[in-house]
């Protein structure tokens, strides 16, 4: 679980990005880079580090699902992700070995 301060910072950053999105877009179209520089740093979406929605983990984030690899695995095993199921590989020697990956349907 991420620290509460990190999650609060992430939420503030999301709000800043949303608040300044239109202004940032219009300034870019005009080419007014001086005014762009005066905007808050965290209003730039490139500075955003995506975090897991459930526990705030910053690494191994899967954008399609909005969770980290660990949470994705747990939710997939519980069947809470629609269209995701565990894949299996059958080798030529008729031994079934389970791969640690999932198929999307």
Strand composition percent = 15-25%
> Biggest sheet, strands in spatial order?
1-2
The general outline is elongated
Kindly report how far apart the N and C termini lie: 30 Å
Low-confidence stretches: none
C-alpha-based Rg, rounded: 20 Å
- What series of H and E elements makes up the topology? HHEEHEE
Mean pLDDT: 85
The count of DSSP E runs of length 2 or more, i.e. the number of strands, is: 4
Structural class: alpha+beta
Number of individual domains = 2
Helix content: 40-55%
Largest β-sheet summary = 2 strands, antiparallel
Provide a count of the helices.
3
List the helices and strands and how they pair.
Layout: H1 4-30, H2 33-38, E1 61-62, E2 67-68, H3 69-78, E3 84-90, E4 96-104
Antiparallel strand pairs: 1-2, 3-4
General description of the model:
It is a single chain. The protein is of the alpha+beta class and 105 residues long. The protein has two domains: 1-49, no CATH class; 53-105, no CATH class. It contains three helices and four strands. It has a two-stranded antiparallel ribbon with strand order 1-2. A hairpin with a 5-residue loop joins strand 3 (84-90) and strand 4 (96-104). The longest helix is centred in the first third of the chain and has 27 residues, at 4-30. It is elongated, with a radius of gyration of 20 Å. The two termini are 30 Å apart. This is Small ribosomal subunit protein uS14. InterPro entries: Ribosomal_uS14 (IPR001209), Ribosomal_uS14_sf (IPR043140). It holds the Pfam family Ribosomal_S14. Keywords: Ribonucleoprotein, Ribosomal protein, RNA-binding, rRNA-binding. It comes from Streptococcus suis.
